Each structure stands twice: as C-alpha cells, then as structure tokens.
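Task card 7
Instruction: Convert sequence to structure tokens.
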Amino acid sequence: MPSSIEPSFRHQCHIYDGAPSRHLPALAAVIHQKLKENYRCLYLDSPPMVAGMRSYLAAAGVDVTHEISKTALVLSSEQNHLEDGLFDIDKMMRTLEHALNQALSDGFAGLWASGDMSWEFGPANDFSKLLEYEWRLEQFLRDHPQMGGSCNYHVDTLPREVVRRGFLSHHSLLVNETLSLMNPLYLQREAFTQQAESAPEVELFLATILESKVAV
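Output:
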C-alpha cells in the first residue's frame, strides 16, 4: 500500500469479530511494511492489545525494541485525547496533526496510525461523534498525503449501527494480512442517510467481510 496512492487506500476500515487478538496479524503485517517504508507507526489500543501487538510484530520479524528506541514504532494505551472521559474530535485531530508534523520533522516519510474505536472513544461509549470524526479524518488525509492508517471496529463490542457507519464511511477495507478492498458501498458525507445506512446489502457485505470471503 504505497503512500503515493489516493486517500482511498490510506484511510482503511478493519472490521473483525471474535477474540480481539484475531485482527493483530493483519495490522502487524501492515506495520511491518510501513516500517520498511520509513514511516513512523502508531498503534493505539488497550494494554493487553498493545502487548499482543508487540508479540505479533516480533513474530513477523520486527526488532520491536530497536524500532521503539528509534521512535519508528509507538505502541500506546494513552487516552490523552479524551476530555473528562469523552471523545473530543478537535483534540484528537490536533494530536494527529502534531504527531504527523513531528514524524516528518524527525526524518520519517510520514505517519501511519491505527486505533481501536472502542478504546479511542473511551469508557463513556458515546459514539455520537463517530461520523463527524471519520469525515474529518478523511479530509485530513486528503490534505496530508504523508498520513495513513486503519480504524479498527470490533463487532462484538460495538453497537451495530456504529459498525455500519464505520464501514460506510471508509473507501477501503483491510480484510486480512494479504487483502485490502475498495468499499463498493462507501457513502460520501452528502449521501449519508438513515435509509442508505439501513440498506440490506450493508449487512450482507459485512457478513462476507467477517468471513473473509468477499466477492470482487
């Protein structure tokens, strides 16, 4: 997934079910590749998931200690973007912009970031700002071609409407270690309606994604 391509493949959605660790091999493979491309890689999730990511990266051949020491790899469970436990879009966007600028200043080609949406939005589980965040993130990536990442949606812990909205607001889907797809049901902001969100083909396509048997 080269950095020179359109934002469609730089802003990806990764939807998974079952044990949270199931999605780690796919993300570890992407991080491994982005490290080779001289990107600073940021992974944001709970402490157990961060520990799991360390293990999967090591298994993939990444010298985790070395990459962390040179700040190419940042594994974090911090939630400094929350305000009184609530997700703050402005603060999150400022955080990402600062992280990207710092990565470029430090000599990296750019920043690749991945976060679990349950962890990012904090313990309040208030997802009312989800779509606005995804739309602003999409615009940020369009304005900053050195930035890319994956938004991770765990269907077993997130409300179904949150998963559908996350799915529909991404051009591209990260399916597994070897497969990324353009999202045929992607909706631009102006086309996003309750009717479009509840269309039966949305659930059908989500089912194929979870089975990793997507017809293209």
